[in-house]
Amino acid sequence: MTQLATVLSRAQNGLEADLVTVEVHLAPGLPGLNIVGLPEAAVREAKDRVKAAITTCGYRFPVQRITCNLAPADLPKDGARFDLAIALGILAASGQIPAQRLAGIEILGELALSGALRGVPGTLPAALRATQAGHALLVPQTNAAEACLAPRARVYAAAHLGELCMAMHDNALAPVPAVPMAQPAIAAAAPDLADVRGQAQARRALEIAAAGGHSLLLVGPPGAGKSMLAQRLPGILPPLTNEEALEVAAVASIGRGGFDVRNWGHRPYRAPHHTASGVALVGGGSDVRPGEITLAHHGVLFLDELPEFDRRTLEVLREPLESGRITLSRAARQADFPARFQLVAAMNPCPCGWLGDPSGKCRCTPDQIQRYRAKISGPLLDRIDVQIFVPRVEAAQLGRAAAPAESSARVRARVEAARHIQLKRQGCVNAQLAGQALERYARPSADAEALLQAAFARHLLTARSYHRCLRVARTLADLDGATTVSAAHAAEALRYRALEQADG
């Protein structure tokens, strides 16, 4: 006599969570558990975890030939997320738990040898897809809060296989109560812009970048405050919308550390070291994990000491800076990740860092300076909207008598007002304007257009940087509450395009 049970689960493929049907078949023959359906190492090892967990909980592991098929067979399966589904499928096929209790429920979870359930990554994307399919989701207790972030999700949670099986026997499996999430807000611990003394022009550039969603390059000597400015950008950005917060949580969910619900609604801030590889930056690997640019989605990616990054690593930023997405193709699979991040980069003006400083410390030769800057390609610099020189702060600006600096809250109010204008007018921030939308919503006045055309004719701008300069000018107009891009706005935007300002 043969027995068959079917359990639903989800595989992880980037941000996608594909439906997997776990079919468990028991038949006479040499005892053993065989898992088929393109399982990778962690899935094949599930047979030992499942057998130990079932017997530890006091249930009988069938002394039969057990075949577990993970369908569809051509979809790669990885991770320990199928442990619980396989265990419940074996118990249902052998008649030790009622199989009808598993109908319409998708199951995720890793098993400890003791039967305890451990959390798995990718719970939120799985919950979103399960809700779309009209199914409930059963997850380990540690993943319950994350799964409940999915709107209208029906979530069941358990901490131990034995307790779960008893609840199924007694028909006592109860859904986790939904807890309304708070509206996304600025993190209370975000550094305040009031900590930055002096640097009026750099603060202005930071505000412009925040208002229009522009990328920003800070060039200056050591200790000028470049890192401080970058760390304070998230604090002057508007709060995330609920949809954006859900996207950020879904991306964090598939990362190594998973998503902590206490960070709900906080904009991500990522600052990888300059030794980071291309895979670490854009994602990839054998199991196609998201990289720093995806983990910074709807947040800030800060690259300090920009020329110290490998040039080939930096070049991979060019496409996502334009499109806001990254597609990773591997032999076995392809994954598409969002990457709508705001880039902030910092660098020294020369190898020693003191070019243009009034102290005259710099002794770098023109050839050394040229080689240093050549580490960053022209096409990448072309894609950075705002480029500003950050000079060394004078002692008088640090003393007690120095005027208090403006707080993040006051700057954020202006940023939010400018963003509101943009979203109402065109439905996106100015940095994302392109094609006909750019011509329609960022059309300059005659004087402003003549100024930009003159800069283009003198080869100060490429076609790409011309349009980026126009987007920045549109943001300046929005900050002023102006309906038209004036010559003054265009002139200020042009000042933010020249890296050569670092020459002093």
Report on the structure:
- With 504 residues, this protein is α/β, with parallel strands linked by helices.
- It has two domains: 3-169, Ribosomal Protein S5, domain 2; 193-429, P-loop containing nucleotide triphosphate hydrolases (Rossmann fold, 3-Layer(aba) Sandwich).
- Helix content is 36%, strand content 17%.
- The protein has 21 helices and 18 strands.
- It has helices at residues 41-44, 46-56, 83-93, 123-132, 144-147, 161-169, 200-212, 226-231, 233-236, 242-253, 278-282, 292-295, 311-315, 318-323, 366-373, 378-382, 408-426, 435-441, 446-457, 463-480, 487-495; strands at 3-13, 16-27, 32-36, 65-71, 105-107, 110-111, 117-118, 136-140, 155-158, 216-219, 269-270, 283-284, 289-290, 300-303, 325-329, 334-338, 342-347, 386-389.
- It has a five-stranded parallel β-sheet. A four-stranded mixed β-sheet has the order 1-2-4-3. A three-stranded parallel β-sheet has the order 5-8-9.
- A hairpin with a 4-residue loop joins strand 12 and strand 13 (289-290).
- The radius of gyration is 28 Å and the shape is elongated.
- Mean pLDDT is 91; it is low at 500-504.
- Pfam families: ChlI, Mg_chelatase, Mg_chelatase_C.
- Keywords: ATP-binding, Nucleotide-binding.
- Residues 288-390 form the MCM C-terminal AAA(+) ATPase domain.
**Domains (count):** 2
The main sheet orders its strands as 11-14-17-10-18
- Bin the helical content: 25-40%
Determine the CATH topology of the largest domain: Rossmann fold
Arithmetic mean pLDDT: 91
According to CATH, the homologous superfamily of the largest domain is: P-loop containing nucleotide triphosphate hydrolases
Q: State the total count of DSSP E strands.
A: 18
Per CATH, the class of the largest domain reads Alpha Beta
DSSP helix count?
A: 21
How would a textbook summarize the main sheet? 5 strands, parallel
Strand content: 15-25%
Ends apart, CA distance between termini: 86 Å
Structural class comes to alpha/beta
Domain MCM C-terminal AAA(+) ATPase: 288-390
Protein name: Magnesium chelatase family protein
GO molecular function: ATP binding; DNA binding
Keywords: ATP-binding, Nucleotide-binding
